[in-house]
Amino acid sequence: MESSSTTRRRATRQKLYEAAVTLIAEKGFSATTVDEIAERAGVAKGTVYYNFKSKTELFEELLRHGVGLLTASLRSAAEETEERGGTKVEALDGMIRAGLVFIDRYPAFTQLYVAELWRTNRAWQGTLLVVRQEAVAVVEGVLREGVGNGELSEEIDIPLTAAALVGMVLVAALDWQAFQPERSIDDVHSALSLLLYGRVSGR
Known about the structure:
By secondary structure, the chain is an all-alpha fold. It contains nine helices and no strands.
């Protein structure tokens, strides 16, 4: 069991992540100061440096933390489908929904993550590529199993299809939140499901 100090530290880090992600989404990384992050999180400035050596390290850990949550939710959706005997396309469909739920819960993080994917001069580029690959690898695994059991076509380019599915969910969800916020998560999921079933399984 976790000690109370570990639990407290985890809660403090979570507050710092939430403060940093909203500020950086609003103002950009360079314009956001450690003082502002501490103030938004309701902690002393020293607490930030106790938990992270620098603002860059905080942001790098934030990316690891956020994409780690996304990866876990994708993996959980795939496992739930497998436990009830569902198909691999149903697992992919469950992962699309899990991705939408994640993005609906963490919209500022998702905006930040998508923006950072296209920048090449950042100190955390290596970390970003590693955590992105962890998320995409979960989808690749399901696609590979689907090809292996004959459910999906052997012609599928697994790495590119996995990246395309993750990208589709990220971009469609950001579009939903920015331009079509009146639509429900079920509505958006249904639209993406049609795309999945039409384009991937060939039904």
